Amino acid sequence: MPFAPVPAQRPVLTHTLGFPRMGAQRELKFALESFWRGDSSAADLQDTAAQLRQVHWQAQADAGLGFVTVGDFALYDHVANHIQLLGCEPARFAFDGTTPELARYFAMARGVSARAAHDHPGCSAGCTAAHATEGQPALEMTKWFDTNYHYLVPEFSAHTQFHLASERLFDEVAEAQALGHKVKAVLLGPLSFLWLGKAKEAGFDRFSLLAQLLPVYEAVLARLKAQGVEWVQIDEPILGLDLPDAWRHAFEPSYWQLARSAPKLLLATYFSPLAENLRLACQLPVAGLHVDAVRAPEELVGVTDWLPSHKVLSVGIVDGRNIWRTDLDAALACLAPVADKHQGALWLAPSCSLLHVPFSLQAENKLDAEVKSWLAFAVEKLDELNLLATALGQGAAAAAGALLAARTAIAARRSSPRVHRATVAARLAAAAPGADQRTSAFPARQQAQRQRLKLPLLPTTTIGSFPQTAEIRAARAAFKRGALDAAHYQQKMQAEIELAVRKQEALGIDVLVHGEAERNDMVEYFGEQLDGFAFTANGWVQSYGSRCVKPPVIYGDVARPAPMTVAWTQYAQSLTAKPMKGMLTGPITILQWSFVRDDQPRATTADQIAWAIRDEVCDLEAAGIAIIQIDEPAIREGLPLRRAGWKPYLQRATRSFRISASGVRNETQIHTHMCYSEFNDILPEIAAMDADVITIETSRSDMELLQAFGGSAPGRAGGFKYPNEIGPGVYDIHSPRVPSVQEMTALLHKAAEVVPVENLWVNPDCGLKTRGWPETEAALRHMVQAAQEVRVLLQEEEALA
Question: Is the fold of 14-23+59-82+143-415 the same as that of 448-800?
C-alpha cells in the first residue's frame, strides 16, 4: 500500500558511507595496470585518480547529498591506505627514507621481487619494488567481512610503532574543498583496524597496541578539524561481531580519548546486527550513529530507545550490497516511526559503502528493459536516498510521480512470469533424502580413485585457469560482438587449450587443466548458460586492487538447459594421456558472487544452482572425465557474522555442495578449492562437504592455515584432523613475484609435518588467469621441481627406515 508519512519538522540529510572507486568504465583499473607495466608514470596514475574522485564527488553533490565522502578512495585498498596513514608499514619490507610512498604502497600490495630492485628516481616507470635487496611476499589478503572485497591484512608485532605518516587523506580533503564541496571524511576506526590485522609473533596480542595507536588517531582527527572538516565518519564494523569482553570494554574509553580533539564523529556500523553491543554503540561519546537497517531492521526500535536525542541517527535504509530497487513504500513505512520518535537529526544513507555495487545503470544497454527497471546501482541509490528524504521530510505528495514509478517497477518484478518456473520447484520438492551423499565413504572412494588414476606421491596440479592473454580476450570480444563466427571462435579457443595442455606436459605437471580460455569469469561463464540469470555490460565491482568482477544478476528460478563445459573438457582430454580435470564453480560461490534475488530464501536459490551443477558433473563423468573440481572459494564468505547463525548456514551450504557433487561413482574424484579464508573454526563443516581433495590458499600465511587441517590449530579443542586429501598452495598467484624452489620446498616440508604425505597435493594458491605466461611457467617449473625434490627425499627417508 502507498504510504504517506506525516511531514517531519526538520530536513532530512542524506549521505553515503563510501562510493565505488573504479569509475564508470573501470578507468582506475586500466590506469593501475598501465602503471604497473611501466607504460605510464606515477603522475599519470595520480591524474586519473584525481579525475575519478572529482566525478564521484560531483555525483554525490548532484544527488543532493549533505556531504561528499572523502577518504573512501584507494589506489588498491582502503585498509592499506590506513597502514600508511598510521605509519605501521611492516618492517620486513625494509623501506628506507629514499623509497617513495607509492612504491611502498604497491610493494605491500603486490610483493617485491629480488630481481626488480633498482635505483631509478621516483619509480616513474611503474615499478612495484621498494629499493629492496631481497624479495618479499605481499601482505596477506582476506575477505572484508562477508563480502567479495579483499583487503590487505595489517601485520602487528611487539615492535610495531605508529605515527602519522601520510598526507594522502588530508590532500584529498583539500582537493574536495577546493572544488566547493562540503566534506565528510571517513576513517576505519582504531579498534576495527587492530581487529582486522594479524599478529606476526606467537603469543602476541594485537589489542595491546591500542594505547599507542589512539594518539595517532587523535592527531589525524585534529588535522581534519584544522582543515575545517565538521564531520568524520569513523567505521567500527566489528561492533556487529561477537567480541571478547576486553575489546568491547575498550570502546568507551577509546572514544572519550578521541573526542577530545575531534570534529563531530559519526560512528558507523554495518553488515550485522549490533545485538549485545547496541546499547554500547548508542551511548558512546560520539555525535552520531549509523546503523544498518537492511541487515538489522529489527534493531531500529532499540536504537531509537537508547540513542540520546541530541545525537544524529543515520539510518542505512538503501541496500549497499545488492542491486534491486528499494521498495520505497516499505522504506518509508520503516522510517516514519523512527522520524517521529527520534527527536534529533535524522540522516539517510545506504546500509554500507556503495563499494560493493556497480557505478550506474546509465551505460547499461545490454539488459532488456524489464530487468533493468528492477535495478538500482550506486548513482541510482543516491537518487533513491534523495527521494526518500523528500518524501519523509515534505510528505509523499512532494515526490508522488517518482514514488509511483518505483511502485510500478516493484509490482512488475513481483508478478513477472520470468521469475518462477514450476519445473524447478518440482525438482527440489521431489529430491530424495540421500541425494546429497556419495555412494561410499571416503576410504573406499580413495582406493578406487588411486587404482584408476595411478598418480605419484605429491601429485602436482593447478587450480584451473591459465593466463588470459590479449589474444584470448580479443577473440572472445570479437565473438560476442559478431565479428568472429562460432566455428572460428572454437578453433581459436581450441588452439589456446592445446597450448595450455602442451605447456603443462612440458612442465611435468601430473593432473592437467584445460586453462579456461573460453571463460570470461568463473561465475559469469556459468550464469550465461543457466536460466534465471541476467547480465550487465558495465556492472563491474572491485574485488581487490585492479581486479574487477561483473556479478551476474539472479532474478529467477535457476535451471541448466544444456551442458556447459563438457565439449571443451573432452577436447582437452583428447590431447593428453594424463588426467584432465573438469572445472566447475560451486553453488555457494555462484550464489555469493552474484547479485541474488531477494524474494525467496537464499538457501532455495543455492539448491536450485546445486542441481544444475550436478547435471554438469554427471555429464562430465559420462564423457570419461575422471577428476572434477567444483570450486567453492566463497563458502566461508557466506558465514553470518554472528556465530549464532553459523550452524544453520553451514548445514545448508555444505548440503548444497554435496548435492552438486554426489551424483558420481566412487572412482570419479571430486576436488574443491577455497582461497583466502580462515578455516580453524569451521573445519568439521568443511570436512562435511566430503570432497575427495580440497585445495586451499596457504602460501601468504606460511602454511599457517594448514595447521587446522592437521589438527594442531591454536585454540582448537579436540584435535580434529581433516580426513581427506589436501593441496596446500605453495605460491601466491596474486603477486608477480616468482618464488624459488627452496621456498616451495620449505612449505611442502611444513605441510608434510601436519598432513600425511600420501594425502598431500602440490598446487598454486589459486587460478593463474591474471598472470602472464613467463612468470606462470617459471613459477610452475619451480613448483614441479620442488615436488620432485621432496618426493626423492621422502623416498630416501622411507628406504632408510
Answer: yes
